[in-house]
Amino acid sequence: MTASPLLTGLAWLLLCQSIGEATSRLAHLPLPGPVIGMLILLLLLRWKVVREPVAAAADALLAHLSLLFVPVGVGVMTHMALISQYGLRLLLALVLSTWIGLLVTALVLRATLRRSDKAPAA
Amino acid sequence: MTDFVQLWVYLSTTPLFGLTATLLVYLLAQTVYGWFGQAPWANPVLWTVLLLATLLSLSGTPYPTYFSGAQFIHFLLGPAVVALAWPLWQRREEVRRRAGPLLLAALAGGASASASAVAIGWSLGLPDELLRSLAPKSVTAPVAMGIAEQLGGIPALAAVFAVLTGLVGAISAKYLFDAVGAMPARVRGFALGTASHGIGAARALHVDADAGAYAGLALGLQVVLAALLIPLIARIL
After folding, report:
1. Residue A77 above 90 pLDDT?
2. Contacts of A41 in chain B (CB under 8 A)
3. Are residues A50 and A12 in the same domain?
4. Rounded to whole angstroms, how far apart are CA atoms A116 and B14?
């Protein structure tokens, strides 16, 4: 009997996250545990034994990424006092800054990609 | 009737309730999203959150009771961040070849979103604690919580701001990009992943595979850049 790729992949993800959490705490790094875990996994993915199960688990998890934000999103109800006090100003700051971020990213990338696509292949 | 009330009181206090309600309402919202041809305003996260929050308020269920069940879904955000290594690895050639433009765009977009949120909030007179929770808003929720904690913000609030930022991007990006003229799908996707993290990336993935791939890439880059740079800049300021 062979192990399920999905479960093996999930085990790799959790293992990398655990090592990441431990490293972040022990070395007092500014990076959160899951981010260090992601960097560790990036190094491990060159090996097929890791890559194949991780691909199955990562695709399954990332396909439903938006569902994972729901529990935190519902938490908005616990901050009703703040929201009724600063709601409009908060919304203005959130919406405008998101638009600024979207536009700056898109315009910078479009301009620099055009330039690098025109340049001869290095 | 009293039997029914007793049953409800029992069920609504077990973790089973929060988990079941989250999944059922999300599936319903996803179906409706499909009916409306995946229109941006029909975003399933937005309607799931609104519906659940209304349901909890009307039934008088406290958020911690709900979260005791929903935490099983919430927990998966950590492994999901680790899983971002996979789309990054798949596009390693692309990343290597276009490292300059991609890094520059990720830095410029992430920095302008974070700085403008704090600047607009500050000019509108928002208290310091809220500003510190606004700074990491373009980063995916679990990482935003970690950064806010380091900055002296409120982690739970930072996570809510991150979710709202994701929703704003997912709902409005299409109209914004259409207004400024031709944007290739990969550029739209990369911008959504940079400024609106996972919720923006999910939206990009629904629209176009190329846009989705670049959004996943941007999401992974933003997580590393923001986690490294935001606390550093805050310390200098």
Report:
1. no
2. 82-83, 85-86
3. yes
4. 57
The greatest distance separating any two alpha carbons of chain A, rounded to the nearest whole angstrom, comes to: 60
pLDDT of the residue at A121? 47
Return the structure tokens found at B114: 């974070």
CB–CB of A76 and B48 under 8 A?
no
Average pLDDT of B134-159?
A: 85
Please give the span between the terminal C-alpha atoms of chain B, in angstroms, as a whole number: 61
Question: A26 with A79, same domain?
Answer: no
Alpha carbons A119 and B18: distance in angstroms, whole number: 55
Cα separation, A47 vs A35, in Å, equals 20
Residues A97/B172, Cβ–Cβ less than 8 Å: no
Q: Which of A100, A30, A79 is nearest to B129 (CA)?
A: A79
Listed residue (A34, A50, A57, A68) closest to B166, CA to CA = A68
What is the DSSP annotation of B13-33? HSHHHHHHHHHHHHHHHHHHH
pTM for the full predicted model: 0.86
Whether residues A11 and A59 share a domain: the answer is yes
Query: Do residues A18 and A46 share a domain?
Result: yes
Report how far residue B185's alpha carbon sits from residue A59's, in angstroms, rounded to the nearest whole number.
Answer: 21
| Arithmetic mean of pLDDT, B55-64 | 90
* A118/A67 Cα distance (integer angstroms): 40
| Set of chain B residues whose Cβ sits within 8 Å of the Cβ of A99 | 168, 172, 176
Contact state of B120 with A41 under an 8 Å Cβ cutoff: no
